[in-house]
Design brief:
This protein is α/β, with parallel strands linked by helices. It has one domain (8-237): Acetylglutamate kinase-like (Carbamate kinase), CATH 3.40.1160. Helix content is 38%, strand content 19%. It has helices at residues 28-43, 60-65, 70-94, 116-124, 142-153, 186-192, 199-208, 222-227; strands spanning 8-13, 47-52, 99-103, 112-113, 128-132, 157-162, 167-168, 180-181, 183-185, 212-216, 234-237. The strands form 2 sheets. The protein has a 9-stranded mixed β-sheet, with helices on both faces. Helix 1 (28-43) links the parallel strand 1 and strand 2.
Length: 240
């Protein structure tokens, strides 16, 4: 790997990105590829934290839409993120990467409680830290968690891994004529109502000058390329 562009990054993984070609659950092949890329980045000296969603198992918003109490549904979604975090930890450890899972909801049998200074210390020691259970509060998405945790640990950027190769003006799965953006400002995202991250997450990033790189996790080597400074996906940052 070339000299990394960033020293410390927050990798945001959607639960859906872990499904691969399946319609539900976790595709081990996706996790194997993820583990190899993260190991390569760690060997180059990049400090990596991960926030993972739970949409491949349960989405709180979907549960709420079907009549479930929103707070209850969100807590169920948080538990789904813990399952994903443990799966990621297992594959990383098997690849020789030291990890820690830190949960915003205490469950000491499987994860450490989230403590900011402890998380930073783990990163300094070369461990990959996986943040689970969102913020621990209902009504906050894992996108917002990613922006919050990235700022708390002093990350240089958020790398948002998705199933598409960047940000488009329309849903490329439904509109073949959709146009991909190479670069956007935070205000572009808000004004155009682009589905990058939720508005709270974008506002947090904007207020603190935290860049966001959106890229396709299913393209081999994309994480390493983005860390090396290659133009991958779409970058969202200040400007204009």
């Amino acid at each position: 790997m070339a000299t990394p562009r960033f020293k410390r990054v927050l990798l945001k993984l959607s639960g859906e990105a872990l499904m691969g070609e399946a319609g539900y659950g976790i595709d081990p092949a996706v996790l194997d590829d993820l583990a190899v890329q993260i190991r390569t980045a760690r060997e180059a000296g990049v400090e990596i934290a991960i926030v993972v969603g739970g949409g491949n198992i349960f989405r709180g918003v979907a549960g709420s839409a079907k009549g479930m109490d929103r707070a209850q549904a969100d807590y169920m979604g948080m538990l789904a993120t813990v399952m994903n975090a443990l799966a990621i930890q297992d594959h990383l450890e098997k690849a020789g990467v030291f990890t820690r899972v830190m949960s915003a909801i205490e469950m000491q049998s499987v994860a450490e409680p989230y403590i900011r200074r402890r998380a930073i210390r783990h990163l300094e020691k070369g461990r990959v830290v996986i943040f689970a259970a969102g913020t621990g509060n209902p009504y906050f998405t894992t996108d917002t968690t990613a922006a919050l945790r990235a700022l708390e640990i002093g990350a240089d950027c958020i790398m948002k891994a998705t199933k598409v190769d960047g940000v488009y003006d329309l849903d490329p799965a439904k509109h073949p004529e959709a146009v991909r953006f190479n670069e956007l400002t935070y205000m572009d995202v808000i004004r155009k109502e682009l589905k990058v991250m939720d508005t709270t997450a974008i506002s947090l990033a904007m207020d603190n000058g935290l860049p966001i790189i959106v890229f396709n996790i299913n393209t081999d080597g994309n994480i390493v390329r983005a860390l090396a400074g290659e133009k991958v996906g779409t970058i969202v940052r200040g400007g204009k």
